[in-house]
């Protein structure tokens, strides 16, 4: 079978996933017809490749050990159409972390002065 995925690295390091028991491959293609899943044997992780991308088909690594509903949720969340919402979530999270850090430092200074 001819591989449609352009991988800039060595193809022997990848296992092409065409079917799975939870139909994740098919469900990803419902999100984007150009999505394909491979298993990176060197990194021991799943990756999604997008055939419509120029130069290199790599889109993202799946941060889970198995293909399941979380993969679909992650793919939807990381789509470029959702970029503004994702950036907003990241900014909010960073602001919360910053506020926690400031509070911790303020508490330490208060303890040291009292």
Rounded to an integer in angstroms, the radius of gyration calculated over CA atoms is 20 Å
Overall pLDDT score: 85
Structural class: alpha+beta
Query: How many separate helices?
Result: 3
**General shape:** elongated
The succession of helices and strands, N to C, reads EHEEEHH
Structural domain tally: 2
DSSP, total strands: 4
Share of residues in strands:
15-25%
What does this entry look like structurally?
There is one protein chain. This protein is an alpha+beta fold. It has two domains: 1-78, no CATH class; 82-114. Helix content is 43%, strand content 18%. It is built from three helices and four strands. The chain has helices at 24-31, 69-78, 83-113; strands at residues 14-17, 35-40, 45-50, 58-61. Strands 1-2-3-4 form a four-stranded antiparallel sheet, with helices on one face. Strand 3 and strand 4 (58-61) form a beta hairpin. Helix 1 packs parallel to helix 2 (69-78). The longest helix has 31 residues, at 83-113. It is elongated. The model has no long low-confidence stretch (mean pLDDT 85).
């Amino acid at each position: 079978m001819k591989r449609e995925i352009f991988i800039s690295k060595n193809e022997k390091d990848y296992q092409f996933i065409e079917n799975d028991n939870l139909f994740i491959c098919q469900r990803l293609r419902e999100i984007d017809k150009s999505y394909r899943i491979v298993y990176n044997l060197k990194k021991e992780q799943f990756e999604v490749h997008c055939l419509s991308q120029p130069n290199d088909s790599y889109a993202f690594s799946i941060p889970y050990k198995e293909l399941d509903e979380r993969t679909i949720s992650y793919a939807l969340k990381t789509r470029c159409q959702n970029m503004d919402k994702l950036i907003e979530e990241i900014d909010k999270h960073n602001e919360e972390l910053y506020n926690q850090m400031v509070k911790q430092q303020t508490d330490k200074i208060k303890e040291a002065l009292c």
